Amino acid sequence: MSTSTLSAARPRAAVLRTEVRLFRREPGGIFWILMFPTLLLVILGSIPAFRESDKSLGGLRLVDLYVPVVVLVAMITAGVQSMPQALTGYRERGILRRMSTTPVRPSSLLSAQMLVHGLAVLVSTLLALAVGRVAFDVRLPEQLAGYALALVLAVLAALALGSVVSAVSRTTKIAGAIGSAVYFPMMFCAGVWLPVQSMPHTLARVVELTPFGAAARALGQAASGDWPGWGHLGVLAAWTVLLSALAARWFRWE
Question: Taking the model in full, what pTM does it have?
Fold first, then answer.
């Protein structure tokens, strides 16, 4: 590895370490991304009706369907609530402008934010899967490769959406308002109030064209042992590309 490559890597690593420490000191992010999704699963799984097989769902229980849903809750929270607040705050306080005069580029901060939130979602996913298995006998994903692929695409879509929210928000207050406006429709599409599999056919078809509706179906299919539908994976990939392009076009460091 060349000296110039090492010199460039050291500041990026330092930024990543700093962002990890800052995230660990933020109790709100730890609770809402890491703990709340699993807590929601425990609350729902404690309802007796959620633990009964449903013939209309192919013999699955509602608690089985809600494990992928709470995984998506962590993604949505990280993407549209946590990350935009952090990035907009850095811009609002002039931190990104000051970084432009140092060896550390602002893009290193953006990459570190995306990596930290992506890892937080991964930890939340593992926690939800473990609690679902131990507490409610929910089967672990039977199609691991398909589940991992759908999970990665869903995380990328969530972070791309968060980048768009960051790009169009001049202040943290605006980021919070836009994030809240996006948060609840995305939660509905993910199936928080009604699993996508239980939605009326026409509504389900529309919801599956959204990133988190497609992610819910892809994760659910992989969890039951089937390869995720290529249509759902394609929707996730298309949204990721589109949102990333919009974020790159609109994002300003100052």
Answer: 0.89
